[in-house]
Amino acid sequence: QVQLVESGGGSVQAGGSLRLSCAASGYTFSDYSMAWFRQAPGKGREFVAVINRGGGFTIYADSVEGRFTISRVNAQNIMYLQMNSLEPEDTAVYFCAAGRFTTFQTETYPREKQYDYWGQGTQVTVSS
To answer: For 98, which of 4, 23, 117, 120 could close a Cys bridge (C-beta 3.0–4.6 Å)?
Structure first.
């Protein structure tokens, strides 16, 4: 049974930091690209960051570039999102996702349908 379980969300003041974790089980973690998406109240789910299977290639949404860092440890089946300099606009439910695609184009990594597995999400709230 495939499971993706996010943790590490919470409430923080603007300028603060949080580290999200995504623990994977039930599939071969290193065979999948991994990503973070988020969904703010009243909005659709949006792409945040993606990392390739080996962990050496990453892409970020413009809104988080330079503030967030995605990483993974394949030996532990876990992925992270380090979030620094948080802003109220970062308030959202954050989801991790796994996809088998290996090419990173605008037709692949930002699109929800490219991902096979999803976690339940973790809430991040940033106050001003």
So the answer is: 117
What is the C-alpha separation between 41 and 60, in angstroms, rounded?
21
Q: Are 2 and 22 in contact (CB under 8 A)?
A: no
| DSSP single-letter state for residue 86 | -
The tens digit of pLDDT for each residue in 75-101 reads 999 999 999 999 999 999 999 999 999
With 0-12 CB in 10 A as exposed, 13-18 as middle and 19+ as buried, what is 39? middle
With a CB cutoff of 8 Å and minimum separation 6, the contacts of 96 are: 4, 6, 20, 22, 34, 35, 36, 37, 79, 118, 119
